[in-house]
Design brief:
The structure holds 2 protein chains of 2 kinds. Chain A has helices spanning about 1-15, 20-25, 35-40, 60-80, 85-95, 100-110, 115-130, 130-140, 145-155, 165-180, 190-195, 200-215, 220, 225-235, 240-250, 255-270, 275-285, 290-295, 300-310; strands at about 45-50, 55. Chain A is mainly α. Classes of the chains: A mainly alpha, B mainly alpha.
């Protein structure tokens, strides 16, 4: 019985985000050869009986574990780095992938303050001898290109002044475009203009007016165009956007990029009021706390690091 | 090289302020005194003068100048006295208010300023107009003009000398194809001109000349307004002195001098490269710039222009 519990605990230590280093030390480290063999034999999820009579560890899992052991390192580096350097590297990595991650580009371009986005552009010059916009424009050939370049180049006004009549009329642009079932909204000149140049306060006013006019939320009505949906969420309701990512990624059985997003979102939103608002949104939307979810799915030092970061905003 | 001359033993800021104050007092205004002071102070000195004047007399120097001076002389003095970033913001704002005829001013600001200066202008624009430069430019332009101008004013080009020659070759080819097809507003043309660093574009155009034995500017001699903007873009980015010489020649030689253009070039380049521009002008027209200005302008306006040129008539 005790063995079954110990095995379950060890298996958990090898599953989810990060690894439970202490358990390896306190439990695994004490086992002799037979005990470890017994563990392997009792854990068919990880070990398969090979035709040549040994319990073979699943290759995929070994690769995965390499990532899990590194997860804390990645979080610590990201957290310690100057936010400008961090975001410059985030942009670069997203672009270097075989299929560039538009969602990461959009997230970084739309959720940072104007000063921080400008700072990321400066850091990018220093690190890579190129401008972000030239690299995005060169590496992305799809229709999203114009919108992405425009988003990353914006230097939005951040003051309180909003022209409400203008916001109302610009909300109507969205209303009409969606009502008419227009195709390829992502290439619509006016939609791109509004989303990539207006101040966030102005965009939030548009979001409100849209709700008043149609009774629906703009991002919900954009289910047909996920890129635009994400842009609108990041600009107008970032807490909802971040909560969504977290709930979808804080699971045991997700891919590497979803796991990376946990680190990325928590570390990049760690400061200011952002994390507080995200926690509130998370709780109200999903009925459980972010802390509880992290406890459920993460292990060891990585888990402790995340929990410490998010506790700062309590 | 700058053409501005500042006296070796410059009076104290307080003295300058007192003198300026006295220039406004009583009947009429002592324009010569204003020219002798403001026409011979650097941006840093002028800024200090404005601050001290405001503290001492509880009046905005610019407002006084606006009240006391008139017409072209006033416009020149006010534009000159502003600090470079505010000045660019002001000029850009004026340009967005007019029809497409003034779009080349936006190109001029976006392309002839250094990347850093353009960012400072965008910051100043926020402060003065409670909007971002790109949102106003986007809102006041349409079609191809918007397609070119918004990325230009939003750019934050890499400012280093590093050049990728292979890329230059490839992009020269792209430009050549598009331009030969008269696809002037093609996405690729705009991508290259709006995002690459000035050094990279320079390398690309050098290759263009070598490989195709054509001067890209000669291929862009269409009368079309958009093509004229493309020409201005290229010149502004890689041959700024030639660009300014042309604007000046055009402003001075036309029937009825185009004062606004003359004012803008002199005021914005006096502390940058007006001396070089004047040399180029003389090479081109065989008449010294100072003499051409003196022939075509009169009174205090003329005196101030010549003062900034470092060529006062005693």
């Amino acid at each position: 019985m005790a063995e079954a519990n110990a095995y379950a605990a060890l298996t958990k230590a090898f599953s989810g985000l990060g690894v439970d280093e202490n358990l390896f030390i306190s439990t695994l480290g004490k086992w002799n050869r037979h005990q470890r063999q017994s563990y392997r034999a009792s854990t068919p999820g990880f070990f398969k009986e090979d035709e040549r009579q040994f319990q073979r560890w699943n290759d995929q899992h070994i690769l995965q574990l390499r990532q899990e052991f590194l997860r804390l390192k990645d979080a610590v580096l990201l957290y310690t780095m100057h936010p400008w350097e961090r975001d410059a590297r985030v942009f670069k990595e997203a672009l270097l992938l075989k299929v560039p991650r538009h969602d990461v580009l959009i997230e970084a371009a739309c959720t940072r303050s104007s000063e921080d986005l400008l700072g990321a552009r400066k850091a990018y010059h220093s690190l890579f001898d190129h401008s972000i916009e030239e690299d995005i424009a060169f590496n992305i050939q799809t229709p999203e290109r114009k919108l992405l370049v425009a988003l990353v180049s914006s230097y939005r006004y951040e003051g309180p002044r909003v022209n409400d009549d203008l916001a109302k009329s610009e909300a109507k642009v969205f209303v009409n475009a969606l009502k008419d079932g227009k195709k390829n909204l992502i290439e619509d000149e006016e939609i791109v203009r509004i989303l990539s140049t207006r101040s966030k306060l102005h965009l939030k006013a548009i979001y409100s007016h849209y709700k008043e006019i149609t009774g629906k939320f703009l991002d919900e009505d954009l289910d047909g165009d996920l890129t635009l949906k994400q842009v609108v969420q990041c600009l107008c309701v970032p807490q909802a956007y971040f909560s969504q990512i977290l709930i979808a990624s804080l699971k045991l059985d997700v891919d590497e990029s979803a796991k990376d997003s946990v680190t990325r979102v928590i570390v990049t939103r760690a400061d200011d009021d952002d994390m507080k608002l995200i926690k509130e949104e998370f709780k109200s939307k999903y009925g459980t706390t972010l802390t509880a979810k992290i406890e459920e799915v993460a292990n060891g030092s990585y888990k402790d690091f995340l929990l410490t970061i998010i506790a700062k905003s309590d | 090289m700058s053409s501005l001359t500042v006296p070796a033993d410059v009076p104290s800021v307080n003295e300058d302020c007192e003198q300026l104050r006295s220039a406004f007092k009583g009947w009429g205004t002592n324009e010569k005194l204003i020219i002798s002071i403001l026409g011979h102070r650097s941006a840093a000195q002028r800024k200090l003068i404005r601050e001290t004047y405001a503290e001492t007399f509880e009046e905005d120097l610019l407002k006084e100048l606006d009240r006391e001076l008139t017409s072209d002389f006033e416009k020149l003095v006010v534009v000159w006295t502003l600090d470079p970033a505010e000045r660019d913001a002001h000029l850009a704002k004026e340009a967005t208010k007019r029809w497409t005829k003034s779009n080349f001013v936006l190109v001029e600001i976006a392309c002839t300023r250094s990347p850093k200066e353009l960012v400072l202008a965008r910051e100043a624009y926020h402060a003065r107009y409670k909007k971002s430069l790109e949102e106003d430019v986007a809102h006041h332009t349409t079609g191809d003009h918007r397609k070119l101008l918004v990325p230009l004013v939003s750019s934050y080009r890499y400012g280093g000398d590093e050049v990728d020659l292979r890329l230059a070759k490839a992009e020269a080819k792209v430009l050549h194809e598009k331009i030969s097809d008269k696809a002037y507003s093609d996405d690729e043309v705009i991508r290259i001109l709006a995002t690459r660093s000035k050094s990279q574009i320079n390398a690309t155009l050098n290759h263009y000349k070598d490989a195709y034995e054509e001067d890209i500017l000669k291929q862009l001699e269409d009368e079309d307004e958009f093509v004229a903007l493309l020409r201005a873009t290229i010149k502004g980015l890689v041959y700024p002195e030639h660009y300014f010489v042309e604007v000046l020649r055009d402003a001075i030689n036309r029937r009825g001098t185009e004062e606004d253009n003359l004012t803008r070039v002199i005021a914005t380049r006096a502390e940058v490269d007006l001396k070089n521009i004047a040399n180029e002008y003389q090479k081109r027209d065989s008449i010294p710039l100072g003499r051409a200005i003196a022939k075509d302008t009169r009174g205090d306006y003329e005196s101030m222009l010549l003062a900034l040129l470092g060529q006062e008539e005693e």
